[in-house]
Amino acid sequence: MNWAVRIDRLVKDYVMDGETVHALRGVSFDVPEGDFLAIMGASGSGKSTLLNVLGCLDRPTAGHVLLGDDDISRLSDNRLSEIRASRIGFIFQSYNLIPQLTVLENIEVPLHYQRRLDGRTRRRSLELAQMVGLGDRLRHRPTQLSGGQQQRVAIARSLINDPYYILADEPTGNLDSATTEEILLLLEELHRQGKTIIMVTHEPDVGNRSNRIIRLRDGEIHSDQRLREQPSTSHV
Which fold has domain 34-59+84-226? Predict the structure, then answer.
């Protein structure tokens, strides 16, 4: 089996006001390519810390996180920045779009960081805009879009570099129920097409749309439940 990420005895401690906070306490799990994983837990359970480590935004105190052959716990800051830009797609609750840029330009932001914007990648950007249903909104700016449309831009942006996995942090947290359903259907379609999705959510109805749920409690895995088997996939 091929793995998108492998996590072994992951520990993360913080020192706050002179006291050590044990945010993650020896967490271990693997995510196979093409999985759709939801990470759930109460506030303070370690969800955000785990997301930050998986996104190469924070370093573990101990343990290992493997992306392919790279152990991100041992890499330089420059190398971590390269991995964030090239191997990980991010979807945020607040969308994190640049208001001065158009839909197409926001999708292409990761390409600018890597100086990879050319005719081929522009075609890819246009294809992704069409795929998320925004082919007729290419010149619109975020303030001219609904919340659901802005999240669709963020989803297209997360795919532009063909990442190892997509990290979705409460991707429906700011959306009404009808728009939440639209975004979940889009994530499910990406999953069927072969994308690996790791989603943090506090909403049970949203978590149940994944095919696996890991629940954290006090920095440890409380349960790891597979809801359904992975489908046969074709790569996006």
Answer: Rossmann fold (3.40.50)
